[in-house]
Amino acid sequence: MSSSSSTSPLAAFPAHRPRRLRRDDFSRRLVREHSLTANDLIYPVFVLDADSAHQPVASMPGVSRMGRAELFATAERCLDLGVPVLALFPVIDAALKTPDGAEALNPDGLVPRTVRELKSRFPELGIMTDVALDPFTSHGQDGLLDDTGYILNDETVAVLTRQALVQAEAGVDIVAPSDMMDGRIGAIRAALESQGLVHTRIMAYSAKYASAFYGPFRDAVGSAGNLGKANKKVYQMDPGNSDEALREVALDIAEGADMVMVKPGMPYLDIVRRVKDAFRVPTFAYQVSGEYAMIQAAAQNGWLDREATMMESLLAFKRAGADGVLSYFALDAAALLKA
Ligand code: PBG
Asked: Which domains are delineated in the chain?
């Protein structure tokens, strides 16, 4: 045998038996490289403008649109379980939806009102709001359209900037632009600074793909019907691209993002890893509605173990380099971690 055999992993047997460390729970725990804690979780909720409403979302079993009473109970549960942030997604009355999504700028609209109520009742709970027009537009797109139906960039950024200011003035802790317009992070950051809103954090949906996995979310916020057969490919990223995600993240960091996000999550863990390695900034992933629906559906059929799959899927985000995960499983996972 040549001397190169000493570098072959096979030649190392039996000196190296990787299974030794896997034999007992204590040594598995001792050498575990990554772990999940409640601190890593952000819980997204669908908010209705009502006191005691509770509407299950058919395509997301276990998830409901909720009125104020349930929302406040949910906020309390986040605090009990140590989940740091609640992310609000409004379900806007169809009668308030317009082509320009003007309701997004109403300082007494559902989102700013809810932010004020939550921050006064639960000041220590982090609150995050979505900056995008799709819950407010009659066409279900995230921005303004020109005559041909193309989503205008700079005109949309001007509106999103005002939307972010309304949310920040209501006291939200984190604004999260999910629209994928060019230049919106810089415009929002400049506007926040100019108003003295220097503490408002920006979590940028930096690498957000035009994904089929958002389907159940669009049912939940009621934009699916408005969007119809249209898609978001002229602003959200092409699922075939990876280098482009790094360019998007670089722009958002340069424009003033405090945290960046990759979305969807599980099918895009390669992007999470590349972003973390390249930039070393706080990096988040969104385990989106369709990912949640898949796990729930399989579990309901008895095809997957719900708890084990949920925990493994969340841990996988940490291993891929994410600092945290937005997940509809956040409360259930935090409860298991506490048990
Ligand atoms: C829209 C928005 C979407 C999600 C979060 N913000 C849907 C979309 O872009 O069409 C999806 C979240 C999910 O699927 O859980 N601005």
From this structure: 35-338 (3.20.20.70)
Smallest CA-to-CA distance from 206 within 231, 229, 184, 230 is with 184
| Tens digits of residue pLDDT in 213-243 | 999 999 999 888 899 989 999 999 999 999 9
233 labelled catalytic: no
CA of 318 to the centre of ligand 1 (A): 22
Is the CB of 218 inside a 6 Å radius of any atom of ligand 1? yes
Handedness of CA 10, 14, 19, 20 (dihedral sign): negative
Provide the strand spans (E) within the chain.
Answer: 41-47, 54-56, 64-66, 85-90, 126-131, 174-177, 201-208, 259-263, 283-287, 324-327
Q: Which atom of ligand 1 is nearest to the CA of 227?
A: 10
Is residue 263 part of the annotated active site? The answer reads yes
* Ligand 1 atom nearest to CA at 236: 9
Ligand 1 binding pocket includes 167 (Cβ within 6 Å): no
Could you say which of 97, 232, 263, 276 is catalytic? 263
Ligand 1 pocket check for 209: Cβ under 6 Å:
no
Residue 183 structure tokens: 């230049």
Give per-residue pLDDT as tens, 88-122.
Answer: 999 999 999 999 999 999 999 999 999 999 999 99
- Distance between CA atoms of 45 and 74, rounded to whole angstroms? 9
Residue 306 gets the label, from left (phi > 0), alpha (psi -120 to 50) or beta, of alpha
8 A C-beta contact, residue 89 and residue 46? yes
Q: How far is CA 237 from CA 57, 153, 301, in A?
A: 27, 15, 33
Non-local CB neighbours of 95 within 8 Å, separated by 6+ positions: none
Cα 270 from Cα 21, distance rounded (Å): 27
Per the listing, tokens 């900034």 go with: 281
Residue 280 near residue 259, CB atoms below 8 Å: no
At 2 the pLDDT is 46
Q: What is the ipTM of this complex?
A: 0.97
Q: What is the reported pTM?
A: 0.95
Query: Was 248 annotated as part of a binding site?
Result: yes
